[in-house]
Amino acid sequence: MRPLSQDDIAPTPWPVTTGMNILVVGVGGQGVLMISKALALMAQRRGFAVKQSEVHGMAKRGGIVFSHVRFAEQVWSPTITRGEADMLVALEWAEALRWLDHLRPGRGVFIADTRQIVPPFACRSRKRGAPSGYARETPAEIVGRHADGCALDATGIATALGDSRAANTVLLGRLSAWLDYPVAEWHDVIAAIVPKGTREINRKAFDAGRGWTPPAPDADPDLVAAVPDALPDRHVGVAIEAAWCKGCGICVKLCPERCLAMDGPKAIVATPSACTGCRVCEWLCPDFAVTVRNEGVPA
Amino acid sequence: MLDVAPATPFDPKDYLRLQYMPHFMCPGCGHGIALRALLAAVHDCGIAKDDLAVVCGIGCSGRVGGYIDANTFHTTHGRPLAFATGLKLARPDLTVVVVTGDGDCLAIGGNHLIHAARRNLDLTCLMLNNEVYGMTGGQASPTTAATRLTSTTQSGAIEPTFDACALAAAAGAGFVGREVTRQAPALKTLIARALRHKGFSFVEVMSDCTEVYGRKNDLGEAPEMILSQKADMRPEQHNDAPNQPFRPNALPTGVFVERDLPEYGARLRAHAAMIRGDTAR
């Protein structure tokens, strides 16, 4: 895993004349539409044709909300297809991951708030402190590896400035670093669309986002990966494909030999030598994550 | 269609569209277990992927077909049996499997179920019964057991439930069976028998909705739910106590009906040939 460095997030502004596809995503009530409105107004003032389309109204928090903003000399289709977005602005971390594939491979810019809003369906257990099914990918795994851009705690920055609701403007400020338009024009556009009483906080939030620099990477990140024990060469064995495991715990509870255990959100093979190859876990895994090797008992 | 299982071991990855895996279903959802059992049964019957058509309706169960690397068909709500009827009549060489849910099959598509069973066309209908409309937020379905909490029965369901197997049998299905996902190998055998049966085969799979139904009713997490299935079922005893309540504590499983009835496709083709012969004369 490559630690985040200054080079990763140094913006190379697009020239003023280039059209762009910008995808803004989040959950309801975060200001996805405010960002896209600001972008659309800005592009309009620069003389571009603009098309914007959205899904909105999921104000209950948890519903997906997205907005496509396309501007160029001429725009025909109002939507951005997979792999066509030049920029992805995400106001919520899991939404950032959900839409990652819409980014143009290789040169799309990824800007995300790292704040998590855990949807109710991700909570497997109602016990306090129980692990949730929320996306496990960390910003360090995404930024610089799958996409270039930056992940910042925009909500935290906005809260420090006095109003967490300005997180969207922080991200807009960050986005503006990639667009070669004067700051004064951005301030103008924001003042034109936000409610009068919030102009000051939005201006401050915009500047904070635009001037954001990544914190220095940890000197010695704890990245030592656990090396799994090699399976002994036996005629029976069990393996779990971690990428498919959703951690429901069925295999762990139903294994008669207690070979398996939960390791955080996933099941692992704890005592491979105890496996008798009975295939109970394989049959009952709803996610096809368990494979049992046993020449004696056909699958 | 093979009568005995092929020698090659079953690997579900051969039958899945790997690009869509892991599938969208919640952790512990019984539909994944039913999908595996279906694929294993297809393998047992030696049906080539090109000769298999899976028709699905709408709902969590409707998404099951999309993960199968065969000819799949995602249709309108409640109407997979109607689509499958057309498909099977046009392509009698295909093995047509309908994967549907309790709401899809008994509420929205209840009419299609009884008429498909009545006609006895050679289809295999797999009804994944999780007793709730999971995808749309946990509303009560025609199989939601009494006293169960759902988002539309906030103080407990009061309606009597459908016994889908009895319904299909009464409507004239040639093969009717039920199994719980806990007994996945038995479920596979049951589905394989249904696939081999010539005529309308109806298999009800008792599946667990862990995230919506289980949570709302405090049925425990996925392992507890699947373990409790065993306490709920009474294999092959459905004839002993016909007045037992359907659920929660007396769930008959096994094959209820297996009878040779005239198959609709063959009858229709014979009829068509007869008419054509008449006109030629």
From TrEMBL, chain A:
Entry keyword set: Iron, Iron-sulfur, Metal-binding, Oxidoreductase, Pyruvate
Domain of life from the UniProt record: Bacteria
Keyword GTP-binding: no
A GO molecular function held by the record: metal ion binding
SUPFAM superfamilies xrefs: Pyruvate-ferredoxin oxidoreductase, PFOR, domain III (SSF53323)
Protein name: Pyruvate ferredoxin oxidoreductase
Domain named 4Fe-4S ferredoxin-type: residues: 236-265, 266-295
Gene3D superfamilies per record: 3.30.70.20, Pyruvate-ferredoxin oxidoreductase, PFOR, domain III (3.40.920.10)
TrEMBL record, chain B:
Family matches, as SUPFAM superfamilies: Thiamin diphosphate-binding fold (THDP-binding)
Keywords for the protein's UniProt record, in alphabetical order: Oxidoreductase
Biological process per Gene Ontology, one example term: small molecule metabolic process
Domain of life of the native organism: Bacteria
Keyword Oxidoreductase: yes
UniProt-listed InterPro entries: 2-oxoacid:Fd_oxidoreductase, THDP-binding, TPP_enzyme_TPP-bd
Single GO term (MF): oxidoreductase activity, acting on the aldehyde or oxo group of donors, iron-sulfur protein as acceptor
Classification via CDD domains: TPP_OGFOR (cd03375)
Thiamine pyrophosphate enzyme TPP-binding domain span: 59-205
UniProt xrefs under PANTHER family: 2-OXOGLUTARATE OXIDOREDUCTASE SUBUNIT KORB-RELATED, 2-OXOGLUTARATE SYNTHASE SUBUNIT KORB
Name of the featured protein: 2-oxoacid:ferredoxin oxidoreductase subunit beta
